[in-house]
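From the pipeline queue, job 12 of 40. The input is one protein chain; the requested action is below.

Action: predict structure.
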Amino acid sequence: MARGEHSPACARRWREQAATQGWSLWQTAQAVHGCCGVSLLKAHRLARGWSARQAVEELERLCEVHSLGLPRASIDLLNAWENNRARPRPQTIDQIARLYSANAVRLGLAADYCDDGDSQKVVVVAAHHAVPVEDAFAHVPRGPAAESDDEGERRALFHQALLGAGFPLNGRLLAEVERTRQDMDRTLASATVSEDQLDRLDEQILRYRREYIKSAPLPMLYRLMLEIGDVRRLVSARQPAVVQRRLLNATTMLALLSADALMKLGDTRQAHAWYGTARAASDDVGEVRLRALVRAQEAMLPYYYGDLTETVRLAREARMLAGNAPSSPAALGAAAEARALARMGEHQAARAALAEAERIFARMPHEDTDHLAFRFSERRLQFYRMGTLIELGEAAQVQEWISRSASPYTIDPALVLLDQAAHTARHGGFDEACGLAEQALTRVPPEHRTSIVVTRARALLSMIPRGHRRTPAARHLHDLLAESGPQLALERR
């Protein structure tokens, strides 16, 4: 099954509906193609319920009966054709068209240049109404039983991933992460919950925020997907305003945690999409500090993977939304802006932003010592201060801070060391930079050594001139990065 495709159970449900509604095989193939994310060629096979082996056997049988010669087809070739990695020969296309009672256009193997309009539009009949096939798949009504089966399969998948050794990552899991986010986005557009349920949900969100700062991102992502499925069902029916606000607040926090986990894993596309979900939920709540928090947290994504000017824009938007009252989003926005400006070389503006972050933090009400994700604590301020000072060339305090740091944030010291390594490399200290990067990697447990850490270490290695890459320090770093390869399943090359 290729990445992004639905499970075979989805095509099976379409075949069952087709049998009930009396659809033709062509209508069923269109339904499977429109819903399941497969090619038209593969949709024809799934519409018949055939495996790839069965399809090849049926093709061989057809060619034998009609004396068409031995078909040049195999399971591997069929998979390549169905996933657009190769194209069958014209003679083979004709044989497949006979097999599926179709033509090259309906197989997706030729373009249709007819100019006779939509007079022959095929209609796929849903449960209670008919819609043109072009529109049939955007919001196809599905019965409660089908939706329940789909959700049950999804939850079983994430439970299996949690129980599996090493939490293996694959396209199916990524597709279900994406579908979970899309389901939540659809639900936000449209919830009866007891006070006790809401209190338990709030407690669970706090528990996730507490555990997140020291948990490996991949298993945490799977747990978040399970929780989001539960919350989505509560939000799916409109609730009284007070209840809805609490549910949307929980949705925002869960989406932020998911986006941050995906950012650490290096999947910038899905991280960006989950930040969009968090933004939609927080905007629906309408509470400015929550909206500011989303923008401030989202600013981290372009800082580590994208455009620093976008980090500055989001950080300033967060500060504007947070207003004059001292708060975590306001302090985080100023600190994030300072770190980005320092890396961009705008040192005076960076010093001013850092001073503003420190002023905001000094005015914030005292909070308990509980460490929570998205709470701007003294340790968070110190982390951003170190990153800013490194870029300002004032890194004398960094090693001392790292040596005595007992931060609950597992990767913070490693990220600071990598900032220092990059700054050192830009000023010609290549061996020292490699040593700092190696120190950063060895500080991080293997389950936390994900793309956000390893990609930056690789970028550092690429900064080193070829003439210096044979030094012992550079070779040690290269070997360590080679050992870290399996953790980079999501890295965008």
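Job complete. Residues 295 and 318 are 5 Å apart (CA to CA).
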